[in-house]
Amino acid sequence: xxxxxxxxxxxxxxxxxxxxxxxxxxxxxxxxxxxxxxxxxxxxxxxxxxxxxxxxxxxxxxxxxxxxxxxxxxxxxxxxxxxxxxxxxxxxxxxxxxxxxxxxxxxxxxxxxxxxxxxxxxxxxxxxxxxxxxxxxxxxxxxxxxxxxxxxxx
Length: 154
Known about the structure:
The protein is an alpha+beta fold. The protein has one domain (21-143). The protein contains 4 helices and 5 strands, in the order H-H-E-E-E-H-H-E-E. The chain has helices at residues 8-16, 39-49, 72-82, 88-102, and strands at 55-56, 62-64, 70-71, 103-108, 113-118. A 3-stranded antiparallel beta sheet has the order 3-5-4. The chain has a two-stranded antiparallel ribbon with strand order 1-2. The longest helix is centred in the middle third of the chain and has 15 residues, at 88-102.
């Protein structure tokens, strides 16, 4: 299959296969985040915690230090700690919904990933280069409905 012929879902699946997908957690903070049923709330709470606490993997090794932007892969791995059956597509759609009003972010040239922070911590920033291709070869608008089952016409 030629890369250009891949669907957006296939592009994401192909990309994430190259990286660890095990959950990330915040040491000594596991009880501080309560999953309330709202993906927006959970992702917002995770993005609040990344400002103060490192992201650690299942072996308790730091993968990302506090105060750094996080990619959808990082955020999804944190979500999996609290809600293991969540797909990366659900997190991508959530980040799109939170969007300009709640997030800052850009495609980071250093790691070639779209990265995010909460706007409330960085009021002077916004969402940058959203029309630029990210790690999946997608623009941010492609995240809006990614992974949703298409309704059949009756």
